[in-house]
Design a protein that fits this description.
two-stranded antiparallel ribbon
Length: 131
């Protein structure tokens, strides 16, 4: 388990606090950092489900909208963003392809945004050796 530093303010109550990337593992060859995003959601798809406006507003207050993930990735200088713990998660409501299209349209991000799935693995490359 990756524990965020105490200075991040994250915990059982403040799970979506704003934090800078922090070292997860570091040695002479590599430095791995992480920025934690609680969940990603698709605003239009969540609203279309028919939830009461207060629920849609709450979801937006504690989740990162898919269209904003690029800005988060750019600000963190991440070479890759992986979308995880999505809402809605039902592919009958929003397909993986629709999620990926929305992510690809996310502004201001030069790297790759990938929709993650359970048990996916993502290789790490040294800076300058690929994305």
């Amino acid at each position: 388990m990756i524990e965020p530093p105490a200075s991040a303010g994250a915990g059982p109550v403040g799970t979506a606090s704003r934090m800078d990337p922090f070292p997860v593992m570091e040695n002479d060859d590599v430095k791995v950092t992480a920025i934690l995003v609680h969940e990603a959601y698709h605003r239009e798809a969540v609203a279309a489900i028919g939830y009461p406006p207060a629920v849609v507003e709450h979801v937006g207050a504690v989740h990162t909208e898919v269209g904003d993930l690029g800005a988060v990735g750019a600000e963190a200088e991440a070479r890759r963003v992986v979308i995880s713990h999505i809402l809605p998660a039902d592919p009958n409501l929003l397909s993986d392809a629709a999620w990926q299209r929305a992510a690809d349209q996310s502004a201001r991000y030069p790297g790759r945004i990938t929709l993650g799935n359970d048990l996916d693995r993502f290789p790490l490359a040294k800076p300058g050796k690929g994305k």
